[in-house]
Amino acid sequence: MGGYLDWFASKIITWQKAHGRHDLPWQQNISAYRVWLSEIMLQQTQVETVKPYFIRFLEKYPKISDLAHASTDDVLAIWTGLGYYNRARNLHKTSIIIHKDYQGAFPSCLDRLTELPGIGRSTAGAILALSMGKRGVILDGNVKRVLSRFHVIDGYLEERATTNALWRHADRHTPAVETNVYTQGIMDLGATICKRSAPACPECPLINRCGAHQRNEATKIPRRKPKRKKPVKDRLFFVICNEEKEVIVEKREESGVWAGLWSPPERCKEYSLGKILEELNLHEDSVLDTATERPIKHSFTHFQIKATPIYVRVSSSACSELGARFRWINSDMIKKETVDVGMSALALKLIKDAPIG
Questions:
Q1: Strand, helix or coil at 292?
Q2: For the whole model, what pTM was predicted?
């Protein structure tokens, strides 16, 4: 399939050449490394958010060998604030495999690509189509929206039958010629014209045959299942500062939420200040000030954290040697966003908002 240019692909290719995006950072000096990095960063993240991260990442790791030789902590540090940190960990793992097993060159076979950590069928398709001149089929969020509306697929996006139908349409429309232009075009169309809300239907090259437009149902498709109420987990975050504007952070476990990142110590809501000070070898007499602030809600895919910040200022003279999983970090580095460890957006906010220290 895809060995010819159907009406759908032809319209998208013509539109892309005239109206698509051509100046995104990852569209310059195209390579498999740059396409892969952009595709991973763009998962569940807006283009404007990704741009500065992509540029900074390439400045630090211009080649995949540079990334392969980096430490996981360094990679997480440059990813700080971008979220979904498993992407960064898988990125690092894959770079090591490609450097060691593939002599630094991405495999040009779909099956080999999808064996790599963090690379699914759609990301592999994008690498093949955008950087290798091969036929690769993609199905990211933008493409799902375009295909769902054009073909009036009104099943829930979360259902396997819907996904399977979308893959069939994606495969049928993807041409074997100018695949790179088509692939960029359908992504651009979804991002700039066939938007989630307020789609610009009069500007769309597919309007004459779009089923959802003809039924006046573009804003109702694609359908998502109603969101269930997320369970809430109550947590205390102890933000302990000294007089030198340093704050204590703790390395999290290598599994679970924010695995391997650094954060103000998080404990259950019954945890006492005395207990955390004991963990840190700090005497209660060293406490100069405390403040408990209003909780902050932080949402994940399946639950929310109700984070209550407890700000504690301690005397610098009382500061002792911390255990292996704790360290002091200069809070000014965090406020200037020059932190050298990986931290979650919530951890950054808690420290930036510190009213003491």
A1: strand
A2: 0.87
